Hints:
Structural class of chain A: alpha+beta
Helix content of chain B: 40-55%
Mean pLDDT of chain A: 93
Shape of chain B: globular
Strand content of chain A: 15-25%
Protein name (chain B): Aldehyde ferredoxin oxidoreductase
Number of strands of chain B: 20
Radius of gyration of chain B: 22 Å
Family (chain B): Belongs to the AOR/FOR family.
Radius of gyration of chain A: 15 Å
Oligomer: heterodimer
Organism (chain B): Desulfolithobacter dissulfuricans
Largest sheet of chain A: 2 strands, antiparallel
Pfam families (chain B): AFOR_C (PF01314), AFOR_N (PF02730)
Cofactor (chain B): [4Fe-4S] cluster; tungstopterin
Mean pLDDT of chain B: 96
Amino acid sequence: MKILTAPHMERCIGCHSCSLACARLVHKKLSWESAGIRIRSAGGLSTGFYAVRCLGCADPFCVAACPTGALIRRRGGGVLLREKKCIQCGDCVQACPVEGIVQDRDGRIYVCLQCGQCVDYCPHDCLEMREARSVEPGEVIA
Amino acid sequence: MNRDHFRVLVVDLDTGQSQVEQFDGRDQAIGGSGLAALLFEKYGRKDRPWSHADQPFILAIGPLTGAFPLMSKTVAAFKSPYHDQYTESHAGGRLALALRFAGYDGLVVTGCAPGLSILELGSRHIRIRDAGYLRGMDAYATGKLLRRIHPGGSGHRSILRIGPAGECGLAMACINVDTYRHFGRLGGGTVLGNKNIKGIIIQGDSGFSLPEGSDYQKLFATVYEQVTATNMMQKYHNLGTAANLQVLDDLKALPWRNLQQTSDPETITGVNGETFADKTLLRNGACSGCPVGCIHIGYVREKFHQDNRYFYRQVAYDYEPIFACGTMLGLGNPFEVLGIMDEMEKMGLDAMSGGVALAWATEALEQGLVSVRETGVELRFGDAAGYRQAARMLGTGANDFYTLLGQGTLRAAEAYGGRDFACVLGQEMAGYATGELFFAAQSLGFRHSHLDTGGYSYDQKHAEKDVDRAVQFLLDDEPGRVLLTSMVACLFARSIYTEEMLARCLDVLGYETLAGNLPELGEQIRCHRWRLRFATGFRPEDVTIPKRFYRVQTWKGPVDPAYLDQLRTRYIEALRARVEPD
């Protein structure tokens, strides 16, 4: 099972195509916010961009925080959201240390499904689907 | 997201109150240029000067904004401080999508804030805040502070701001949009300055449902593939518009040294697109929703202390600013060109107008029409240091000379002389000395932009002097461009967004009526825009062409004065015919 990684964000041009693709293809929305990946700039466009997303934790804080079991671990890393069980309390949003989960004004939760559809819409190949595994000694990840 | 009406936020700075208004007319006005005209018709004061507090500042996006790639521009419309007539300016950046996701098709700002202020809005907030502490602040510093003032929403907000030029009322003051894009031409910065608005922050914090079924998704994928997987956009992606510098110099169509020359084969290699890319290009950027990434960001690096202390700044470059702040000033070093553009940016000056104005000032100084007492610094073609100082003086209206020059080069020429060599075609010229049709078209263009029509392109392909055919080309070309600016598409995408493709995009989003009437709507909106222009005082006969343009060499040889005059006469007749009843 692969998870979404963003190893080349220094190439990002801030087009938001990945984020818009997630909203469009996964959530049937036209939005910057209602997406599992969101592009931010750190101090304006001069300092480049970073991707806010689920990092595919093996032991996710959000799962532990979910009071109804709506979030469950995904095999290979990350989480799966069972919307029918979600009471939209937002505890998962608070629990995620990297803002990987967002909640819209209607209370709906958005988290990366690790589906990789955004990858095809990055014109600079900033994103990749990779096998989730523990970091080996001497290995450096972006 | 498919609405049969326009949803527009109207902000009254006099009262501090705002209204969300619904406007009918989607099926006639489309959006963008058409919506802006519709809104000016309602809120504009045609018979009052641009500086009247009631005059609106208008932003408008289109029905495809955010839904398809390269639908990434916003139209700003206002009565221009440059000529006191209705006009438009267009900018990219994040603004279009921010406005879309804030939930509005348009924004109208009327009245005048009691003190220097910033306007903040999103889908669930509108605030007008005092910002007197920003007075006199340059556009870069203002952007940094506005990001701190309005925390949160990084990446999903658009920040418009003006620099000193807009605060001190110069007709060539621009509005900086998200650091690297601009509402450049015709004085939008001073329109905001006159309203006491230093900045506008728009947060795109909402979203819309998309049509059911897969048709939209499939069409999006088709368009996206054309944009990214074919070579249709390669020019803009690779060297960017700076690629034109070498091309136009080779064609004898690149203005040099205040248009005294149209080619300089030795110097151009120092400032052509390849050199900018090889030596100065740091990285690329994109407007939101556009995978092309045509924004080319170079750098200037300066040693400010002998102990190897340096700083650097990032400066976005394009063809037009390189022409105006480079070749027009006789410069052959890309870093020097970026240094002057950097000063223009900080001041909030339109780089094209500013560069062309300084080129005129250089020649006026050479001829003794003005002295260093006026210019404050020696201006010599090829001397970048002087131009950097002059750009700062121009942007701050440092003395009577620069204050007047900042109102337009012809205004200064009227006072000091030198009208013959003022490179003004309605406004300071764009960088296309391609020939008679471009000179005629730009002088009478709606935005005085080279993109109002394809006259620059026609010149490069047609050596013959057929007035009827050339004018017909302009007339046939404009409505298609107006359609695109009503969507509001980036005009670089005009090869992708053919009329047929636009109709498919509209249809798949549920705008069937719009999709079925595009040619007629393009013509209607063209005429509406021109009617507003004429109603606000436009007299095309008053727009004259300085003698310098009659002495230009192009690849076709010397400009033919008689042909140029005939083109203008016929085009004026054609424009009048479109706004006056039979």
